Amino acid sequence: MKIDGTVTTGLGKAAYFLSQDFYVNNFKKNCGFRPYPGTLNVIVPEEYLPQINKVKNECKNIIKPDEGFGAVKYIKARLNDEVTGAIVFPAKTTHEENYLEFIAKDKLRDKLNLEDGDTVSVEF
Length: 124
Prior knowledge:
CDP binds at residues 10-15, 106-109. By secondary structure, the chain is an alpha+beta fold. It has 4 helices and 7 strands.
């Protein structure tokens, strides 16, 4: 599935969670990279929500961390046909349903010169 979406500013909470060893070590082991401590937030059209929710609900990749932290489902993905990473689905989130959170080894706003309002494609 390939979806175009719009880059938006997140809440800034992912940096803390993606700095925790149990998340970092799991992503490194299972996705092949140490994630940059932050996500690229992408708003996708609501028409894709049924397919996204199906993927999320059927996802078997899950990190179950220490007590006090939420579980995270993830699927490997590509951004703009050039960056390999993953989409994360945190069990505890305050984002709307049509937000995708993309992680990669680099700070994607800098690497791809992205700003709020830019269009990106996410494939998973």
